[in-house]
Design a protein that fits this description.
- This protein has about 90 residues and is an all-alpha fold.
- Helix 1 runs antiparallel to helix 2, helix 1 packs parallel to helix 3 and helix 2 runs antiparallel to helix 3.
- Helices cover about 85% and strands about 0% of the residues.
- It contains three helices and no strands.
């Protein structure tokens, strides 16, 4: 437990940041899954805008420090490669 005001504030800040980070990670995971479903259905037209959304979500998460920059690039590259394979 927090023993002083600054420690209590840090606890509150951590809770808010944890929720924000969780939300961003979930957004990346959901868009990643949507791309995977479109690729599995061999639908290149539907996958293209989903890859763009995935790129935006991954870059946003990387810029805010939620995920590492290299991880964001790896996610984007794998998605683009998968869509290119079915196109």
């Amino acid at each position: 437990m927090a023993n002083n005001k600054s420690a209590e504030k840090r606890v509150r800040q951590t809770e808010v940041r944890t929720l924000r980070n969780k939300s961003m990670k979930t957004r990346v995971k959901n868009t990643r899954r949507a791309v995977g479903e479109a690729v599995a259905a061999k639908d290149a037209k539907a996958a293209a805008p989903k890859v763009a959304a995935l790129s935006a979500a991954a870059d946003k998460a990387a810029n805010r420090g939620v995920i590492h920059k290299n991880k964001a690039n790896r996610i984007k590259a794998r998605a683009a490669k998968a869509v290119a394979a079915i196109a």
